[in-house]
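Exercise 7b. Backbone tokens:
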């Protein structure tokens, strides 16, 4: 059964202050992991052109997700996709299968993610090579409440790939530092 995924993202400049707000607002820490997401397409990118995205993700669990753009074309405030996610045994096995059927073009996005939850709201704190972001996943009403409460001015209604593509080309060869400290280390 397809699930409708509604979210927005915003950049976090002061991680310590943001984590204090989460604790004060009684968000519950679910956990953290390093995630590697690989998006697959044909060489001519025909799936992407149709608004279909197939990806594998490892970290918390190994999964494959099929995302599709929603039919609501007038709604621009939130990032919204219909998706179906399946747990798989191993992302490498799935990569082999996807490449065998012709999905040889791939894009890789790596991040450290910690998940906080309160009621129907999930906050994903994502540390990427190009910054720390928060992804709010919930209903439109709940997202609006959080954006207002946190006084967030600049939001993204797109993917991390889209955010990355907005970065100046001279800064795109960014890598995680060798002795990187994961965000969850700040909680200990």
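Sequence design result:
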């Amino acid at each position: 059964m397809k699930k409708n995924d509604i979210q927005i993202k915003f950049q976090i400049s002061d991680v310590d202050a943001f984590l204090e707000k989460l604790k004060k607002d009684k968000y519950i820490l679910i956990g953290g992991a390093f995630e590697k997401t690989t998006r697959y397409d044909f060489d001519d990118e025909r799936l992407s052109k149709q608004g279909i995205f197939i990806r594998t993700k490892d970290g918390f669990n190994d999964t494959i997700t099929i995302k599709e753009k929603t039919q609501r074309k007038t709604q621009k405030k939130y990032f919204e996709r219909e998706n179906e996610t399946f747990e798989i045994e191993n992302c490498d096995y799935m990569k082999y299968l996807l490449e065998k059927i012709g999905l040889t073009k791939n894009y890789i996005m790596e991040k450290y993610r910690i998940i906080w939850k309160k009621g129907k709201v999930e906050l994903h704190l994502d540390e990427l090579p190009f910054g720390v972001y928060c992804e709010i996943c919930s209903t439109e009403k709940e997202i609006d409440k959080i954006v207002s409460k946190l006084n967030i001015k600049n939001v993204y209604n797109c993917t991390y790939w889209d955010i990355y593509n907005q970065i100046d080309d001279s800064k795109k060869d960014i890598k995680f530092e060798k002795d990187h400290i994961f965000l969850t280390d700040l909680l200990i």
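Instructor comment: The first helix runs from residue 15 to 24. The domain at 3-187 is CATH 2.40.320.10 (Hypothetical Protein Pfu-838710-001).
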